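Changelog-adjacent note: as of this version, every example in the card shows the full chain rather than a window. The one below runs 335 residues end to end.
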Amino acid sequence: MELAASSPGYWDDPREAQRKMQELGRIKDTVSTWRGLQSRTGNLFELTELAMEEGDDSLQSELEEEGKEISDALAKQEIILTLSGPYDERSAIVSIHAGVGGTDSQDWAEMLFRMYVKWAESDTRAVQIMDMSYGEEAGLRSGIIEVAGPYAYGYLSAERGVHRLVRLSPYDPNHLRHTSFAEVEILPSAEEDPEIEVRSDDVKLDVFRSSGPGGQNVQKVASAVRLTHLPTGIVVTCQNERSQHQNREFAMRILKAKLLAKMNEEKSQEMAKLRGERAIPEWGNQIRSYVLHPYKSVKDHRTNYQSTNPDAVLNGELGGFIEAYLMSRVGNQET
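Full-length structure tokens:
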């Protein structure tokens, strides 16, 4: 691939050339990581043998610490090996939508929105807030972020589905227990995907004033954007930025991601028909339950992975849940 980059005509198609160079960079990073682990393991083995021969116990804690670091690094690489899908390496667009249940569900949607932002920040990933649609009293009707960094889509695909919250409602005057639902949609970025082409004639543009908490207009100028893709009927709204141009750019990125997802869903359904399988496109039951009362627990219903510290989970500690789900798919990958 490096030789090809220096050949005549390689950069005639800049977009494709850039994609190949990014792929080369990822391959180099992977090779470098595994060679580094091989070198560290070899050094640890030699030091352990030397310490045993000389009966030197002073290095024991240092050797144990190095062994744990190597073991943790290998475990992380094992997870990455499960991320072999065509879009797993891309950035992810995360959309959270409040379910039925009024203010409680909208508050729950905002809690999930914060949870994913916290997860991304704790993993030193760049986060771009693309849209926030506020509830009448509190919370969010919906929120959209883009999470960058290696394998963002691959990791966050584990979060796709319906999330359920059980708690004593802060919005109920009797402080009764409520169950709230929110749906999380995860899409791979399609910003520069050669498969997705959006013609300007196929998109209807509407502009309107952005709204803030309580549904009040927060700007005097119409900067919010609504794009309607006429061939598919897909509608995308974006009102987070003050600039109409910026909102339009974000909306187009979200639209392309939705079109890519629709294309792949249609391919999956067609393959299922050819194989004689039943394709079920609708959402199933909740993938995870977060219980804050009468006890504290977060349980993933697909893997049975569980935490008794929902506060930590809601502050972004999702690693255990994501890894358990990804490992559960080994040998049972979806097409």
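Structural remarks: Confidence is low (pLDDT under 50) at residues 278-283.
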